[in-house]
Amino acid sequence: MIKYYSIDPDQKAIKPASAQREEFENPSVARIIRFDMLPIAQQRPRTRVIQPKGGGKAYAQIYTVNSKHKKNLLKLLVKSPIIEQATFFYCLALYKPPRSWSTAKKERSYGTRKVTKPDGTNIAKFYEDLLEGIFMPKDQYMNPTMPERYYSTKNQVIVATIVSDQLTYNLPKKIKEYFLGLQILK
Asked: ω into residue 147 within 30 of 0, thus cis?
């Protein structure tokens, strides 16, 4: 369900890695995590009024519906040392085309942008909140690129935390090409 990847220091190759291996724990370039699941968007907080039994004072409780998904994913993630430098956050969401589409339309859609809901920023927000304090320092990351959504053969989310002094224009592009190419070839 969760796979880990690393990028070599000269940024030429992305390769699978174990979460306990040196290149993932102390990345010189980036940590990449692939979630093999339908991308989840961060939902708006909701409010409900709680009336205590016994006639106490009523109060409002604020919650999000998908907090249960976060708790389940947190159990699966392997804790690694936090990158203490400022990091860039990159999110790539891959969706399977709808079943109602014809086979020809599905084949044409692979690698094209998904423009319907959920919004890419809501997807990125869910995974930022999930990884904050586990792989990234709290409130020390920036999002230089818009989260991207594409059609693919599998539902997946690819999240990369890139060390800020290693960010190049081509790095998010390489990550996208690697995972989209991997999906289309399989």
From this structure: no
pTM for the whole thing?
A: 0.73
Q: What residue segments make up the domains of the chain, in order of their start?
A: 2-185
Side chain identity, residue 13: A
DSSP 112: S
Distance CA 172, CA 167 (A): 9
* Distance from C-alpha of 22 to C-alpha of 97, rounded to nearest angstrom: 37
> Which amino acid appears at position 181 of this protein?
G
Give the pair of three-digit tokens for residue 72. 């389940």
Question: What is d(CA 61, CA 45) in angstroms, rounded to the nearest whole number?
Answer: 10
CB atoms within 10 A of CB 41: 18
In the chain, which ranges are continuous DSSP H helix? 22-25, 67-76, 103-109, 120-131, 170-185
Q: Given the structure tokens 């320092």, which residue do they identify?
A: 137
In total, the chain counts a number of residues equal to 186
- Tokens, residue 68: 């249960």
Q: Is 10 helix (H, G, I), strand (E, B) or coil?
A: coil
Q: Which tens digit of pLDDT belongs to each residue from 42-77?
A: 777 788 888 888 878 888 888 776 667 777 777 777
